[in-house]
Amino acid sequence: MELERVSKPLPLPTWKSLHIELSLASAEARIQIREFVIRFVSLMRGISNNHVEELGIIVGKNRDKGDSDEDGVEEEWVSEVCVKAVLLGLLELIASGEGQEHGKVCACSPALLLTFNRPVCFFYWQIIKTAVKQIRGCSANLNKIWGILSSMRDSLSGSPITKSSPASGNLPLTFPDPSPLPAMLNIRVTRNQTSAGLIAYSTQMIPVLVALTNLAVQTDLVRENIETALKEERDWVKDERDKHKREVGRWEEEKKVLKGSGNKTNVESEKAVCLLSSEASQM
To answer: Which of 136-145, 160-169, 185-194, 264-273 has the lowest mean pLDDT?
Structure first.
């Protein structure tokens, strides 16, 4: 007698609101930075497991501990050390490539080589590498780091080579300013100094990091890494299909041998199957 299976409806999920002041756009920006670092961490120098863990806390390290902000402002995200490490990794990735000798340029991005000639690209590469050296030598102070980045951006956009280029005003290597300091925090944080351009929280650097990740995606190293991963995936699928095909062929040969072995072997096989079924039901 066969028993009818009674299907029970799946329980409805219970949704709970998170008590955080974090917009969808802010969450997506943080996730974009985190996913890029995790995917291409092998290409970025100086990224430790602690940095990856920090990036994994989307709501911010203080929020994750249950701390609340009385003003309802998005403040802390990751540590300044983490921001510095990610910035250095992104800048070195953008300036990565080949051909540092004989006036050749590191392949900063396909957009650069399509927009400008090789001497101009080499000029940009030198500016970026100088900024990387300066950031690496300074402390993990976001105001100092942004000062170096801002000078690098001004050098890239205000160079004589760029001004004489027909593509002036369409510079691929650019990024926005950090987010401004919330007005309600100006008095509390900047009592003895002006708040213009002040970076008090790592959250303010998110727009800069997002723009740099978009630039890094265009680099040759990232594209080659993606193509290599796709090739490995295709090779793995092909190997698994070949294994499946060989296993099917082996099983077909095995069935032919079983059919031609006689009734005695078939009876013993059926007994063995019944014995295994009974043992499995008792477990």
So the answer is: 160-169
pLDDT above 70: residue 22: yes
Side-chain-facing half-sphere of 116: CA atoms under 13 Å = 27
Contacts of 165-168 spanning 24+ positions with Cβ under 8 A: 165/115, 165/116, 165/120, 167/115, 167/116
Tell whether 276 and 187 lie within a shared domain.
Answer: no
| 209: containing domain | 24-65+72-218
Q: Which of 199-208, 210-219, 253-262, 270-279 has the lowest mean pLDDT?
A: 270-279
Pick the range with the lowest mean pLDDT from 5-9, 106-110, 262-266. Answer: 106-110
- Length in residues, the chain: 283
Same domain membership, residue 206 and residue 240:
no
Q: CA–CA separation, 44 vs 33, rounded Å?
A: 13
Is there a single domain that holds both residue 127 and residue 183? yes
The CA–CA distances, whole Å, from 188 to 177, 181, 182 equal 22, 11, 11
Pairwise CA distance, residues 168 & 143, whole Å: 29
- For residues 112 and 212, state if they share a domain: yes
Taking the CA of residue 139 as centre, how many other CA atoms within 13 Å lie in the half-sphere pointing to its CB? 2
Query: Which of 99-113, 121-135, 136-150 shows the highest mean pLDDT?
Result: 136-150
Clarify whether residues 200 and 255 are in a common domain: no
